[in-house]
């Protein structure tokens, strides 16, 4: 897999989700990923985003404080030289490999959110994210965030303007509890599942979207690498922030 200077995949976008009964054909314009014909645009109305690893560049910060969490809650430490290996695993596998006590997960997550709140100035958006959100909003998309982080942390990193674009923020989601929150966002916005997409960086995002009956878009610059994401068949794969805008708006 080729990476750019930030360690992001340079693979092209993959799009496999179209309107049901649209009759759109797929063109194999890239040898690895098929894409929808540009003459047959996607018709999403709701774009739901994960936060950490998708909008916010927080992986490095997380690795940095993981040793503190490991010592505090009694699981195996994560070494910095393990990051490439870790990105090849889904969340369930990572928890098992590092002997994370499942009963302590809610307390670990709460501690993670508090630690980030105290160091929030160390977290920034990926380049282009603010412009992406603004342009999606101008194109008529309803935007929302569903995250294991707190909405207070999200607000600090996004800023007032970007947060104001969100129709909903569902924070503090349990590690495998996104499906219920996705369903809640659908109810709040009144948008049909077939017109919604969840964009995230982990296998659990793909699975949650599938369980909620919505499309899944996976970004390759976050907590999970390209090959692992591909193996779980997301409806879209994005190698850059610009590709999200291209695929959703055209």
Question: Can you walk me through this structure?
Answer:
This protein starts with 13 loop residues before the first strand and ends with a helix. The chain has helices at about 60-75, 85, 90-95, 105-120, 130-140, 150-165, 180-190, 205-210, 225-230, 240-250; strands spanning about 15, 25, 35, 45-50, 55, 125, 140-145, 165-170, 195-200, 215-220, 235-240. It is of the alpha/beta class and about 250 residues long. The strands form three sheets. A seven-stranded mixed beta sheet has the order 1-11-10-9-4-7-8, sandwiched between helices. A two-stranded antiparallel sheet has the order 2-3. The protein has a two-stranded antiparallel sheet with strand order 5-6. It folds into two domains: about 15-55 and about 125-250, Rossmann fold; about 60-120. Residues about 1-40 have low confidence and may be disordered. The relative contact order is 0.19.
Gist of the model:
By secondary structure, the protein is of the alpha/beta class.
Key phrases:
250 residues, 2 domains, Rossmann fold, alpha/beta, disordered N terminus, two-stranded antiparallel ribbon, 7-stranded mixed beta sheet
So what's the overall shape? Answer: globular
Distance between the termini: 26 Å
- Radius of gyration, whole Å: 18 Å
Write the H/E string, N to C: EEEEEHHHHEHEHEHEHEHEH
Please tally the β strands and state the result. 11
Helix content: 40-55%
Task: Outline the fold blueprint.
Layout: E1 14-15, E2 26-27, E3 35-36, E4 46-49, E5 56-57, H1 59-73, H2 83-86, H3 91-97, H4 105-118, E6 124-125, H5 129-138, E7 142-146, H6 151-163, E8 166-170, H7 178-189, E9 196-200, H8 203-212, E10 215-219, H9 226-231, E11 236-238, H10 241-249
Parallel strand pairs: 4-7, 4-9, 7-8, 9-10, 10-11
Antiparallel strand pairs: 1-11, 2-3, 5-6
Helix pairs in contact: 1-4, 5-10, 7-8
